[in-house]
Write a structure and sequence with these properties.
The protein is an alpha/beta fold and 413 residues long. It folds into 2 domains: 269 residues, Type I PLP-dependent aspartate aminotransferase-like (Major domain) (Aspartate Aminotransferase, domain 2); 134 residues, Aspartate Aminotransferase, domain 1. The protein is 36% helix and 14% strand. Strands 1-7-6-5-4-2-3 form a 7-stranded mixed beta sheet, sandwiched between helices. It has a 5-stranded mixed beta sheet with strand order 8-9-12-11-10. The chain starts with 5 loop residues before the first helix and ends with a helix. Bound molecules: pyridoxal-5'-phosphate. Pyridoxal-5'-phosphate binds next to helix 4 and helix 5.
């Protein structure tokens, strides 16, 4: 039989993995403690020689069911979930880096990630930022003590597309852990493992859960990195096949030290969102593409940033990197100087919400420079290409005609 589509696999995974009493959904396990029948079992579980649950900070059967679904999506070796995307990223860095290490990061990162990296800079991890659209720029930033490279597939809000494969080759050549935050592209459109990622980050608060009603994050070990060569794996996690060392350290040490564990209630809610993940992404990406085309032809619009448009600087790369189901749900645009001001246009919207959300079912918009990048200096915003009048649109699954009609009336002078 042909390998089934991942959406089909996810819909049936809980049942196939033996959810209790033949239930279609993995039940919500509320226990925080597990008991053992014999002393050797509790000892082996504590010493990582036997799989099992001990205390729910390290995960529960319900989070494990979500881990399995996300892992199927990413084609990974294993996946660990966290309470938020930021908890996932913080855990990856705290569990895998030490003082004295160097990190090369994309210069176009989710703002809160940059904030975290700057904090880690205060704890002895040095960081260089480089342009991820150019693998040579990333390579040029590598130092003898570099351990990790961290990039986002698709940057928010200007939609720069990283050279994922080129950077993957650089990381493989230099033996570096390659962390790809794939939140904005999503695994429905880009599978980061195919481009050499060692670890894939997803914020589950966005398109993967989809309804703007729950927070979560995940780390997937793709199985591509050779952990036997990595100097930061602690002795206690060098157990069994070296392939599993990184994942073991992320799960055991990561969840233990940071404690950013996802609750079982949240895990089941995200699993329900995953049941319609491909449907929602395909619809929202089509909407975003149509809206980007319509805006780019509007007389008041100066420029539209969307990877599906032929004038996007990385359009050719996007065509080969994205799997043909769409170019993502995010776009941004600026207005001409003789048009209404960005604030006036946003104030006149009747349907589309002014909100910081991404990957919701509802379309959301905001003025970028004055909100999510307000803490950044004007100079730095300039370097990132964030003009004062830049409007971000996170496109949802409404009927496209209704979205276009709302922008049309708001843009009217
Ligand atoms: C939202 C987001 C995060 C953080 O996720 P939270 O779940 O909000 O903590 C990280 N990276 C990217 C690219 C995001 O969009």
């Amino acid at each position: 039989m042909n390998k089934r589509h991942i959406q089909t696999q996810i819909l049936h995974l809980d049942r196939k993995n033996g959810a209790e009493h033949g239930a279609n959904h993995k039940p919500i396990h509320k226990s925080t403690q597990w008991a053992f029948d014999c002393a050797q079992d509790i000892v082996d579980t504590f010493q990582n020689r036997r799989s099992g649950y001990t205390y729910a900070r390290g995960g529960s059967p319900t989070t494990a069911a979500l881990d399995a679904q996300l892992n199927a999506l990413e084609g990974g070796l294993g996946t660990v979930t966290f309470a938020t995307g930021m908890a996932a990223i913080a855990t990856a860095l705290l569990a895998l880096l030490k003082a004295g290490d160097h990190l090369v990061a994309s210069q176009y990162l989710f703002g809160n990630t940059t904030s975290l990296f700057n904090t880690l800079g205060e704890y002895g991890i040095s960081i260089s930022y480089a342009d991820p659209t150019d693998a040579a720029a990333i390579e040029a930033a590598i130092l003898p003590n570099t351990r990790m490279v961290f990039v986002e597939t698709l940057a928010n809000p200007r939609t720069q597309i990283a050279d994922l494969s080129g950077i993957g080759a650089v990381c493989a050549q230099h033996g570096l852990v390659y962390v790809v935050d794939n939140t904005m592209a999503t695994p429905a459109l880009v599978q980061a493992k195919n481009h050499g990622a060692s670890i894939v980050v997803n914020s589950l608060s966005k398109s993967l859960s989809g309804h703007g009603a729950v927070l979560g994050g995940s780390l997937t070990d793709t199985g591509l990195f050779d952990w036997s060569t990595y100097s930061n794996i602690y002795q206690g996690y060098q157990i069994g096949d070296p392939k599993n060392w990184g994942l073991l350290q992320l799960r055991k040490k990561g969840l233990r030290d940071v404690g950013g564990t996802m609750s079982s209630d949240t895990a089941q809610q995200i699993s329900l969102g995953l049941e319609t993940f491909f449907l929602r992404i395909e619809r929202a990406s089509q909407n975003a593409h149509q809206l980007a085309l319509w805006l780019s032809q509007h007389p008041s619009v100066a420029h539209v940033y969307y990877p599906g448009l032929p004038n996007h600087p990385q359009h050719e790369r996007a065509v080969t990197m994205f799997n043909g189901q769409g170019f993502g749900t995010l776009l941004s645009f600026t207005l001409k100087s003789d048009a209404k001001s960005a604030f006036a246009v946003l104030d006149d919207l009747q349907l589309i919400m002014m909100s910081t959300g991404l990957g919701d079912n509802r379309t959301m918009t905001l003025p970028v420079a004055q909100t999510i990048y307000a803490e950044m200096s004007a100079e730095q915003r300039n370097a990132w290409g964030i003009e004062d009048g830049l409007i971000r649109v996170a496109v949802g699954i409404e009927q496209i005609d209704d979205l276009i009609a709302d922008w049309a009336q708001a843009l009217k002078i």
